[in-house]
Write a structure and sequence with these properties.
The protein is an all-alpha fold. It has a domain of about 35 residues. Helix content is about 70%, strand content about 0%. It is built from three helices and no strands. The protein is extended and about 60 Å long. The two termini are about 15 Å apart.
């Protein structure tokens, strides 16, 4: 009976630790700006290769949406699909527990 909700308890603990770690690191970094991994990665590659960052071109060019509204729409669709998948998994788990 004590192990009935072990997975849920571990998930809540992991989420709490992640949130605490994020809040601690963001509070200690004064004046830091968040940048995407594409910007940071291309800057490091340009630095290591000796090619100036302005002249650096990735092997697979990235598609840039024509406007900010389309970019926001694509992000919202991605978030909705992810939410549906997570909700489906949790719904399946709850349904299988009720069935058993």
């Amino acid at each position: 009976m004590a192990y009935k909700y072990m997975l849920e308890i571990l998930a809540v603990i992991a989420i709490g630790v992640f949130c605490a770690l994020f809040l601690y690191t963001s509070s200690t970094m004064s004046g830091a700006e968040f940048a995407g991994s594409d910007n940071v990665g291309s800057g490091l590659i340009a630095e290591l290769s000796g090619i100036p960052e302005e002249n650096f071109q990735p092997l697979i060019p990235q598609w840039e949406p024509p406007s900010g509204e389309i970019e926001s729409c694509l992000f919202a669709i991605q978030a909705a699909v992810g939410g549906i998948l997570v909700g489906g998994v949790f719904g399946f788990w709850i349904g299988s527990k009720k069935k058993a």
